[in-house]
Structure formats: C-alpha cells, structure tokens
C-alpha cells in the first residue's frame, strides 16, 4: 500500500477514508493521531495492528463539540462541562463513564441486520476502543482540519498518537510517514503541531479528579477550575512491579529513541555543566540542551540539538519529540538531555523526557 499525503484541500477525501472504515493520519494541535471510525470495531482493531499497540491500552475518542458527550457518556459530572467550557476545543481529555446500552437497544441489535462491523458490546462504544473498561477518554481537538474531518465523517474518531508503539509521537506529517509508510492509506498534512505533546488526561470518575497524564492544559489551569486535583504517582515516577496503573498506557515503554537517554533536572547552567563534564567528546554522545547552551557544546563531535530557550517551556514541548526522532537518524550511543522544572507545561515536557529515559533522571 502506498501512503498518500493529503493536503488541506483534500480533507473531504480524508473524511471518506474514516467513513469507509479506513485508517487516517490525522493532524491535531497536540500530536498527529492514527484515526479510525470509533464506532467501527473492525476499523479500530486495525489501529492496534498498524501501531503494534497492546490491546489493553485504550484509545481516546475525538468529537467536534462538547454536545456530543451525551451520545457516548453517562453520569457526566458538572465539572466536565466546566472544563469543556474553559478548555475545549483544546488539548484536554476527560475520562468519563461510558454510556451503557439499554436492554431494548440490545434486543433490537440481536434481531436487526448485522454486518462485520456491528459491535455487540454492552456499551455504546466498542470494547476495543475502551479496552473493555467502563470509562472512555473524550477529547474535542482544536485543530480546524481535524474537527472538519470529524464533522464531515459524522462519527467520533478513535485515535492514539500516530507513532509505532514505543517510539516518540509524531508532530509533523513527515514523522508520521516515517512510522506508517505503507501501512495506512493516507495522512492529512495539517502542518507542525502547535502544542507538541499529547493531551492532558484527567479522570473525572473519581473524587478528587485525578491527573493521569500531564499535557497542554496545565495542572495549575485544572486546579483553577476544579480546586483539588490529585496527581497520579505514575506521572512522576516509574510504576513498580505488580503496581496497577489507572491509565493502562502508563505501564508501557514510551517515547523512546534507540539510544538510552539520561535526563538532567536542576538549574539550567548547572545541568548543562553536568552534561559537559560527562561527555566522551566522540560522535557517540548526543545532547539535547536549552538554546542558550548550544555554544557550550560547540566543540563536540556528536549531534547537539536545541530544545528551545530555557525559559520557554511551550517551545520545549513543541520541539521535544522532533529532537528525539532526530537522534534516531544518527548513530549516537547515548543521549543527554536537559530537563525543565515541573511548573506549567514543564510537567508534561519533564514527564515525556523521563519516560523516554525510562525514568533515568538525575536531579542536581
Ligand atoms: P496515546 O495518546 O497514544 O498515548 O493513547 C491514549 C492514552 O489515553 C493512553 O495512554 C490511554 O491509556 C489513555 N486512555 C484512554 N482511555 C482511557 C480511559 N478510559 N481511562 C484511562 N486512560 C485512558
Ligand atoms: Mg501514544
């Protein structure tokens, strides 16, 4: 299969692919997603296959507006509407109770016409999307092309990030082509992602609400609306053997380039000096540093990449996955990376970097 790169003007073709049960590389403001009709279990199963994703890792359901929530969720708390009012469309995923089918609906289903993509599960969303959980992750993305495609397809789009499982998420159509060439019919090119890290995930089925994954909407912003927000321990540390994570995706290796990463956290000039002192001064060491410290590493033989200015965490979020992927195009044996503090979107950058490093973080 030849993977087609679709331009903005071909977005109705993109919607056709979703309607027809195919897979589409779809741009969002966070990262590129691998989308399919979220009500078609056959199409959704193909996502897992193309990515090599474990079946117990659920997908996020993307909708074009908050009013679609009631179609797929029940017991929706008032907090969901408050968050939607403030942050949707945008990089926030809410975990809510998935709507159950009524006994009448189940009866009709049994007696009605069926096709290979009919799903018979007890909930309105196929189990393959939710990994059989009774909750579902819901997001309304801000990217206009993405919402346009979902609206035209008139179906919620289930999508995880568009990378091969374990690799850094794609933030450009080219990244996605690196991983999905020959595996999917098309990628809709919507330009580079403006956020650059995946959506924030907040679980609203528990009290207090719990942050499962930091992202473009910050913990501080969530607390402004919700008051108390718990932070899942898996956000900042590695899960121990036998520990059961709340978000199934938390237990898997993520975002990792081929060479091992060491993340250094602390005052920026000190973390840069720490890295410089440990370099082998050969092409086997790669460095991802804040913009200001590029001159410090100018003499090094290995690749030196900028993560953006030390004070601009938004830029760091936009650049991180691109930098990790760029390292994969070199033959480095080790990667050293400066890591921002946890304030604002720094928590998301630090979380992805720490996961890429297998939580091999040095705090100085
Ligand atoms: P990705 O954006 O590729 O990381 O995939 C979607 C993420 O959303 C995964 O980390 C999932 O574990 C998480 N997710 C999706 N649905 C749920 C849910 N119902 N409960 C908890 N986490 C979820
Ligand atoms: Mg992912």
Mean pLDDT: 95
- CATH architecture of the largest domain, by name, is Alpha-Beta Complex
Helical proportion?
A: 25-40%
Q: What is the fold-level CATH name, i.e. the topology of the largest domain? A: DHBP synthase
Using DSSP, what is the number of strands?
17
Query: How many strands, which pairing sense, and closed or not: the largest β-sheet?
Result: 12 strands, mixed
Structural class: alpha/beta
Radius of gyration: 21 Å
CATH-assigned homologous superfamily of the largest domain:
DHBP synthase
Termini separation: 49 Å
Write out the distinct hetero groups bound to the structure.
adenosine monophosphate, magnesium ion
Measured by DSSP, the beta-strand proportion falls in 15-25%
Low-confidence parts, pLDDT < 50 over ≥5 residues?
Answer: none
SSE order, as H and E?
A: EHEEHEHEHEHHEHEHEEEHEEHEEHEHE
The coarse silhouette is globular
The CATH class of the largest domain is Alpha Beta
> Total number of helical segments?
12
Overview of the molecule:
Helix 1 (11-19) crosses helix 7 and helix 11 packs parallel to helix 12 (346-356). Helix 9 links the parallel strand 11 and strand 12. The model has no long low-confidence stretch (mean pLDDT 95). By secondary structure, the protein is of the alpha/beta class. Helix content is 30%, strand content 18%. Strands 1, 2, 3, 4, 5, 6, 7, 8, 9, 10, 11 and 12 form a twelve-stranded mixed sheet that branches. Strands 15-14-16-13-17 form a five-stranded parallel sheet, sandwiched between helices. It folds into two domains: 4-235, DHBP synthase, CATH 3.90.870; 261-363, Rossmann fold. Adenosine monophosphate is lined by residues 57-60, 95, 130, 133, 135-137, 160-161, 198, 201, 212, 247-249.
């Amino acid at each position: 299969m030849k993977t087609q790169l679709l331009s903005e003007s071909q977005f109705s073709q993109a919607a056709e692919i979703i309607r027809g049960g195919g897979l589409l590389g779809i741009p969002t403001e966070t990262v590129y997603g691998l989308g399919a009709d979220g009500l078609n279990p056959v199409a959704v199963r193909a996502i897992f296959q193309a990515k090599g994703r474990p079946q117990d890792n659920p997908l996020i359901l993307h909708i074009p507006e908050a009013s679609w929530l009631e179609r797929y969720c029940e017991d929706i708390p008032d907090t969901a509407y408050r968050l939607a009012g403030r942050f949707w469309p945008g990089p926030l995923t809410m975990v809510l109770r998935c709507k159950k089918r009524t006994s009448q609906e189940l009866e009709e289903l049994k007696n009605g016409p069926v096709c290979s993509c009919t799903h018979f599960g007890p909930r309105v969303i196929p189990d393959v999307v939710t990994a059989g959980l009774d909750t579902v992750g819901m997001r309304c993305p801000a990217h206009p092309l993405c919402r346009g495609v979902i609206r035209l397809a008139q179906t919620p789009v289930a999508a995880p990030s568009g990378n091969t499982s374990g690799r850094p998420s794609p933030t450009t159509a080219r990244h996605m082509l690196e991983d999905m060439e020959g595996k999917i019919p098309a990628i809709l090119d919507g330009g580079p992602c403006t956020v650059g890290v995946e959506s924030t995930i907040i679980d609203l089925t528990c009290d207090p609400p719990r942050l499962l994954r930091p992202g473009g909407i910050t913990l501080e912003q969530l607390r402004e609306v919700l008051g108390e927000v718990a932070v899942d321990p898996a956000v900042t540390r590695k899960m121990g053997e036998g520990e059961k994570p709340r978000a199934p995706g938390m237990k898997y290796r993520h975002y990792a380039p081929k060479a091992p990463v060491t993340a250094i956290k602390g005052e920026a000039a000190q973390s840069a000096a720490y890295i410089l002192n440990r370099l082998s001064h050969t092409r086997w060491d790669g460095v991802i540093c804040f913009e200001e410290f590029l001159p410090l590493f100018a003499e090094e033989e290995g690749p030196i990449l900028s993560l953006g200015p030390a004070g601009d965490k938004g830029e760091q979020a936009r650049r991180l996955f691109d930098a990790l992927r760029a390292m994969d195009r070199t033959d480095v044996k080790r990667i050293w990376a400066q890591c921002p503090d946890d304030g604002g979107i720094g928590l998301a950058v630090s979380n992805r970097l720490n996961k890429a490093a297998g939580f091999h973080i040095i705090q100085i």
